[in-house]
Each structure stands twice: as C-alpha cells, then as structure tokens.
Amino acid sequence: MRNLQDIRNNPGRILALGNYRPGFQAILDFDYLSGKPEPSIAGIVTAAGKFQKYFWGEKEVLLPCYPTIGQAKAALGDIEWMFNVNSGRRAARSTTEFFTEFPNALGGHIFAEDVPEKDAIELYNKYQAAGKTLIGTAGVGMLVPGYLKLGVVGGVDYRQLVANRLMTAGSVAVLSASGGMINEIITQVAASGHTISFALCFGGDRFPTTTPKEAFLAAETDDATTHIVYYGELGGQDEYELADLLTNGQVTKPVICYIAGVISENFDTPVQFGHAKALAGNKSETASAKRNALAKAGATVASSMADFAKAISELPTNTTDRKDIPVIESRNSSLFSSTISKEGEDGYEFVGTSMQAWARQGDIAAQITAALLGKQPQSALTVEFIRTVFLLSADHGPQVSGALNTIVTARAGKGLVDSLAAGLLTIGPRFGGAVSDAANEWFSGVTDARDPAVHVEDYAKAKKYIGGIGHKKYRIGLPDPRTVLLAEFADRLPSHRYFDYAKAIEAITSAKKGNLILNVDGHIAALMLDILEQEEKYDEQTLRQLIDADFFNALFVIPRTVGFVAHYLDQKRLDEGLFRLPDDDVLLA
User: Fold this and answer.
1) Model pTM greater than 0.70?
2) Domain-by-domain residue ranges, the chain?
3) From the CB of residue 316, how many other CB atoms can be counted at a distance below 10 Å?
4) How does 178-199 read in b/e, with b if 16+ C-beta sit within 10 Å?
5) Residues acting as catalytic residues
6) What is the second-level CATH architecture of the domain 4-313?
7) Which helix (H) or strand (E) holds 309?
8) Which positions ≥6 away from 364 have C-beta within 8 Å?
9) What is the percent of the chain with per-residue pLDDT over 70, rounded to a whole number?
C-alpha cells in the first residue's frame, strides 16, 4: 500500500468509471471543503452525455465525460486514481483497462459487490502486489483528511463531512471490514473530540485487494497516525496476521478493536452474515477466538459496541490545528449550461477572455475561431485559415438564393432581422450547406479507408452528387482563384490526409467531366479537417461530433450573414420599391 505521506504530498486526480452521482458529488464536496482549487475528479467514463453537472460549493461545474478509458486518457493525460463504480461483472475488466491506459497510476477503489473471487485474486496479484493501492471490492474506499477522498467513505452528505471534520488531518487511523460501520466509527471518533489521520475500508469479501495487514503496516509507518481503531468480523484469518504484527513488533502503535459476530456462536451450525467473508467455518474463525488472539497480542479489545465507543473516547486528544471550512448555504440547479460567456470580475467574458481584452487584441477572426471551437485555438494557422475562409465567403453576388431572398424581403418593406432570416433560411443542401456534407464525405472516406474510385463509383450508381465536387463556371484548366488561395494552406501542414483524399476524388471526377472539380466548399471542408487534426490535435471522435453538429456549415453561415446584411442595407439605400416578377418570367400552366 502506498505511503500515506506521499498521498498528502501529491493527492492527484481521479478518473471515475461508471455513474454514481451521490458518490461523485461527495468527492467534489470534500475537495471544495478542503480548500482545493478544483475538483479531483478529472473526468467520468460513461456513455451518459458529454458532460455532467455537479456542484462546486454553491456553484455548478461541468465534469467531462468520455465513452472509453482510452479517450479519457487522450483528453486528460496522466491520472493518479480510479474510482470504479461499475457492476461486479464489469469491475475486473474495466480496472485492467484503466491500469493498461494509465500504467503510472497510483491505484484505485472498486466499489462493486459480487466481484468473482477469481477476479479479485487476479487483481490483487497483478496490481496490489506490484505496488498499486487498490481498495475493495465491496467496500467504500479510502479517505485522507484534507487531501483525498476515494469513494463514499466518510459519507455522501457534505454536512456529514463537516460534522466529522474530515477536512482536518488528525492522528487516529480508522480501519474496517464493513462499509457501513466505518462511517459510524468515524462519527464516534469525531464525537469524542478527535480527528482521523486516514480511514480505509477493506470490504466484506473474502479476498480484498487491500488486506487488513497492509493497512496496519501503512498506519504504522505513517508519522501522522498515533492510534489505530479497527473493526473486524467473524470469518477468515486476518486478525491472526494482525496479532502477529503486534507480537513481533511490526506494529507498535496502540490498537483499539472490536470483532463483530459473537452471536453466531449461539447457533448449532455456522451462520452466514451480510458479508461474503462473515462466516466462521471453524472455531478459529469465530469472533471470540479472534478477540482472544488480539487481546493476547496487546490490543485493546472491546466486548461490545458501547465499550468500543468508550475506548475511542478515551484516546489522547488531538493536537492538530483545526482548519477553517467554507460554508455551503444553498444550492440551486441550473436549467441549462453554457461554456461560452459569463459575467466575471472584469465585466463580460467571451470564451474565457474579457470583451475589453478581445477589443485590445483587435482580431475578430481570433474571437470567432475561439467561439466556434469553444476554447482558445492552439495554433495561429487555425485562425489564419478561418480568417481567409471568411474573407472569401462574405458574398458571391446578388443572384444566389440567400442574397436574392434578402433583397426581395427588404424591398417588401421588412426590417433587418426579417430580411436576414429570409436569406439564411435558404441555406441548405443546394445552397451554402455543402461544407458539412463535404466534410462528411472526406472524413468517412478516410476513416473507413475507402478507395476513392469505389467512393466515386458508389455515388455514380446511386445517381447522387458528391458534396464539395463540381462548379458551374470553373473547371480543370480554369481554376477558381479562391481555391488556389485555400490550397496553399496544405503546404503549411505536416500532413493533410483529408485534403489528399478530396484531391484523389477530384482526379477521378474531373477526368469524367471537366467541371467536376474540388470546389470552395470541398476545399474548406478538407483543409479544416486537416487543420483541426494537425494543429488543434482533435481526434476522430471529436471531428465526427463536429460534423454531426453542423460545425462546418458555420464557416459559410457566419461570413455570408455579413453579405446578406450588406444587401439589405444596399436595398434600403436604393429604395427601389416592391419587387414583383414580370408575368413573362412565370409559366402559368
């Protein structure tokens, strides 16, 4: 088991596996009340959404969620601890996957009951025996006051944490086989005016991944611990190992203990109590026999819970200074979440930067790029590309659907918002909405390792257009000057697999017909994919999420909004009156 002082020196971060809101919230409450600057739970591995809302004090925070442990590793980097609340059936597999992805992790806690004994033994031999601190199964975890709460040990209500002063380091180690009883004992310690140095629950299974012996040795080597309080049960041989530690001097600190289950000795046949291990298969495993062994070794052994509480109350008073604990007065859940803007100390913030700072920076392309990504871009090339796209996309003439609808609406006497909305509502698969379609083409082709020739042939057989291919005016030998400028960005990237795939498609389609070239939409989609992957380090899952969210069409909608507004204002200046098509331009069938 890991040295406790090492944990105090570097508590580390936790990756939660599964869903258990009360348990996760209790850890955040412990962190907040302990004065930590941020939650120790860095992320949650679950399919239940991309983020989950929790309270940090009285305010809400979003914890990121990841579908797999591998994706959590890619996003979060190194993690020190695992809190595994998966079912007993999945516990061993997910624990192994965690340590495979995080080989340098310090350890973790397995909360589940009904973990197969074979799995528990394998986990112990593979991780605990190799130096990890793996706690469980069927337990409630470990708590080091003020530093680390790994599990529901100590309670799930922040008021319980405060009442038992679990943010203030003390000198009493509380060790227990029972998850329910460890919280009762912690409360007894606090009620008698003491605070704990650490608490650990082994769990009630026959083969815990941290044994009582290992926890006792950790308490012995912990300078902060002066006394050990232990709650055990009938069944198993652990208490004889503990007695040996006391007898041979490996544990020298005073031990107060209570071994539950004497009542079972009144039955003619062995009785199975609540835990898997709580069954006395022979006389040596009875509570009375184990009490006698510990008493002979020098431990203070209580004969009842009342005596146990009395012995705890008589422990020397802690001398550790009490720390000030923040106050949580009220909590109100929000109706929705936003990570884009808020009002901060310096006024309104937009994507983490005050509006004044954006104004001083003077680059609206940088501001819009941050808004689209939801965070500050890592690369200046990303901003430069989006700036170039916007400058090339503001307007393509008054004849196109969006501009024409804006003009017609303006000439009908409508206002700016109505006219702009009329233009924007025309954006779709036939006008301006092809950037996302093209991004899906190139992304699916590359990630599915689809041969470009097969891609083209499949679309030809289905008589479908390929998004991002084709132009009314430009062709091979007469390129669109805008695409020439965009293509230069490929030369500035270390690799550009999406652009290469799009160009391979173009080579096939343009050989069939000269105007089936990679158009502006196709260039924007392919190069934006490459820039996000190469410069912003987006993985394939994140790129897929952007495609599904229609991110790429925003690269058309934002600059074209400026163009539509310009056409609206132009019509108000010209004031040509209501537009009506001549009868000759309409076929009246």
Assistant:
1) yes
2) 4-313, 385-574
3) 11
4) bbebbbebbbbbbebebbbbbb
5) 275
6) 3-Layer(aba) Sandwich (3.40)
7) helix 305-313
8) none
9) 98
